[in-house]
Amino acid sequence: MRVLLTGRFDTGEREAWAAELTRQLPGLTWLDDAAADAAPAGIEAAVVANPAPGRLARLPDLRLIQSLWAGVDKLLADATLPPAVPIARMVDPAMNAAMAETALWAVLALHRGFFTYQAQQRQARWQPLPQRRADEVPVLVLGRGQMGGAAAARLAAQGYPVQTWGRADGDITPQPARTQIVVNLLPLTPATRGLIDARFLAALPRGAGLVNLARGAHVVDADLLSALDAGHIGHAVLDVFQAEPLPAGHPYWQHPRVTVLPHAAAATDERSAAAVVAANLRALQAGAPLLHLVDRSRGY
Q1: What is the pLDDT of residue 112?
Q2: Rounded to the nearest 10 degrees, how much is the dihedral formed by the CA atoms of 265, 148, 272, 69?
Q3: CA 265 → CA 64, 153, 161, 169, distances in Å?
Q4: Residue 176's pLDDT is what?
Q5: Is 263 marked active-site?
Q6: N or C: which end of the chain has fewer CB within 10 A?
Q7: What is the DSSP track for 43-66?
Q8: Could you confirm whether 167 is annotated as catalytic?
Q9: What pTM did the predictor assign?
């Protein structure tokens, strides 16, 4: 089977993926963009990382689009995607575990005031803070998918009262009023874009924390900055942004109530993720059911 490996990769990243995929699937023919342009017929699958718009429309025999990333919002934004070709997203157990670890770290740091202690250190200020128990810190996890479920389970295991919310709840909006910390792990869809806005933030109790590990477009930046400036939101841990890398002059960089991560909450591990790709490509060859298919109408 001929398979195209295409997309936007960092330096050396495509080579690392190609090596691992070839190791796990040595019997397949792996193609780059130049080879696909020269002979597009007979390419049955494309393994992609946010490919250039129009790239997949040129493949007449395509039977599967397998994304290397968990989020498919950028992929689905390509209006030229072949409408009848199934799309599978990446559901990597190693990534789910890493995301749960980051969520736990952020919640612990907010709960125990560790970001405040960090600021106090810079001021040479010795000031112990009142210490709450985990069962006194309700957490709302937005998203009930693989990552949201893994994070919620990890937090609950540490004793936090965890409420979850997902788009499957229909028109019922999340109820953050009794929440001390919000962790966002929603997919980005038209329905969730801008969900964390002034109204949502105002419903949180004063001093609540926000952890955004999903997509920058879930948050209305101006509304969050206003809530932070007013002290209504005590601290925000942000891993994702509307523009990435985060521009040097963005207010988040210097805001005393913001911790910035460089989209590093859960890096994809080529070894475990390649195994997920391999399973789907073998299923495609065998005519077996494909895993982790995207519902285009829902956007994930």
Answers
A1: 98
A2: -70
A3: 28, 17, 22, 26
A4: 76
A5: yes
A6: N
A7: EEEEEEESPPTTSGGG-TT--EEE
A8: no
A9: 0.92
